[in-house]
């Protein structure tokens, strides 16, 4: 497989289109026909550059990983302090969330910012911390054994269990609702 930096301009247009489709629909949600329509070329032209859909996806992943790694290295060089790096990392994740509209990025951002910083230290916000909910249940299950392990929840189990149930039921419903719209296509 050629490195993406060695590809022709037309092959890079195919990679651009495939990347957008993968971000919008996922790997199984696009076909070579979709890419051909977006780029304005015939399907055999795509096969000229990428024999299989897997080859195309591998090139998309290679280029995406390369760009992301460049951004992480840039942050490391530009920011000496850990707090500045953390802010820059968070900004990078926000940028990815806006550009790709991808829920996984939002989840990472939530875990990075909310759970690590706000949810652990800000008393009013701790009631909305999944980590605190889990600690409350763990503390209840372990009883007296929780104290030597330094397990201290900022919320009670009476708050934690209902909120976790709402989160689990809501997330499961939402995932099912999103999966119903998933289109399966053949591998080209």
What does the model show?
The chain has 188 residues and is an all-alpha fold. It has three domains: 1-77, Orthogonal Bundle (Tetracycline Repressor, domain 2); 79-120, no CATH class; 122-181, no CATH class. It is 71% helix and 0% strand. The chain contains eight helices and no strands. Helix 1 crosses helix 2 (32-39) and helix 7 packs across helix 8 (157-180). The longest helix has 26 residues, at 53-78. The protein starts with 8 loop residues before the first helix and ends in an 8-residue tail after the last helix. The mean pLDDT is 79.
The SS-based structural class is mainly alpha
The main β sheet shows up as:
none
Secondary-structure element series: HHHHHHHH
CATH architecture of the largest domain: Orthogonal Bundle
The geometry reads as elongated
Distance separating the two termini? 17 Å
**Whole-number mean pLDDT:** 79
What is the CATH class of the largest domain?
Mainly Alpha
- Are there runs of 5+ residues with pLDDT below 50, and where? none
Summarize this entry quickly.
The protein is mainly α.
